[in-house]
Design goal:
The protein has 325 residues and is of the alpha+beta class. The protein has twelve helices and 13 strands. The longest helix is centred in the middle third of the chain and has 15 residues. The two termini are 28 Å apart.
Length: 325
Amino acid sequence: MDEFAEAWFQLWASEQVLSNGHKTDAIPAATARLREAWDNDGFELLAVVNRIDLTRFDDNVTPIAMGEGRLVYGLKRQGSFTIIFEYGLPRRSNDITMDLGSWAASWHALGEPGLTDTEYLSELVEITGEYASGLSLNQVRTNHLFGRWDLREFHLEGDRLAHAAVAQTPDVSLNDSAQFRDFVIDNEALILSGRHEIPENMLAAIAPTPTRWLATGADERARMVVAFNTCSGCHQNPEVPGVPFQHIKSAGPVNAAAISDFLRGEVTLARPLPGSDSRTHNERESRIVLLSALVDLGRTEKSVSMMRNVKSLERIIQERANRVH
């Protein structure tokens, strides 16, 4: 494990060039700080996060890819650094619909009234132990202030982590460029349905924050939806009130981690998200509604058709059809 960690620390010490030609910058101070934390028990677990809401569905609202479970860590003596391990929820059977309902039930059971602290922690350990393994690791993401704010993404390659393109985030050099504008214009229908994908050659190696994404001449709502789905737009976006740089951050050694207003309740966006006619968005409520519906998924043959016909669920599924955050 020490060799694995040291190899990752070293990635920060030198410029890394991705296959699409975009580059990271070198931050030797980050290598030193991360190594120091590793050697001195300097990381702390901030949150275990249920992201079953990132499950992918086809056009018939049939699940085709499971959501995630995440572990969020921070540096004890530097609250401006978090690292997130994001794991795909593993299959429990040959029936993905039944598996999705089973995972939803496992998460939902953590909220059962009457659970003692010991029982709660025991069930939580069982859940995280099932998904948190190298075989299920989708990606690792960081957000940090080492000289400047930025976000990075890493993928497991063999027995090492390697820098990867930042999902759904164009390189900042493309901001308000003809290439970015043309992408928004040409893909407007996909963007407004929540199903756009940023082309590989446009993806960034790092996501400096804050960034206000511009696409002069493109539809404003489509531009805002693309911006919202970028890493830099999901963190400290001037168009999304209540969004700080970190959605989860350390609040000190004896306090629960602090959670952003965006995750706590209702915010007013600059434009509606896909599937919605309203600028009002409540991330917490959306995740609760979807989880509650998924708890019953797979228990009856009517579950999928039931979800398909509930307007609120249709909106929630559409607005996060291609979200990664």
